[in-house]
Amino acid sequence: MRAVKELKKHCLLMDVPLVLVRDILLGWRRSCFAVPGKPIATVATFGAWLADAGVSRLKKVLQASGHKLDDGGCLDGPTMPSCRLTARLRIDGSWALVEIVMIDVIFQAVVQIAACVHWL
């Protein structure tokens, strides 16, 4: 979780909010903590927000603090749904990985949750 907080701090400097997804969201829902034993956490942001801020700028901001950003999974730009970035954050002398995935709509999940609640 410290790596996610560190990444969030740097992204907010660029006005790029992050959303908890996958294992982080599930763990938070279950016990207010990440799923133990997972080697990588996953967060998301809207690709358009990151496109406006610039992937290269995020890379420079992270590098200035001793972190790294692997943008090899995002060659077509952050507005493509296949874009995946991996932040390598230096936390207490070791590297922690956080995957950043791009989303273009968030309302689909809300509709699915509403449908599940309707059937309860």
TrEMBL record:
Name of the protein this chain belongs to = Uncharacterized protein
**Which species is the source of this protein?**
Symbiodinium natans
Q: What is the lineage of its organism?
A: Eukaryota, Sar, Alveolata, Dinophyceae, Suessiales
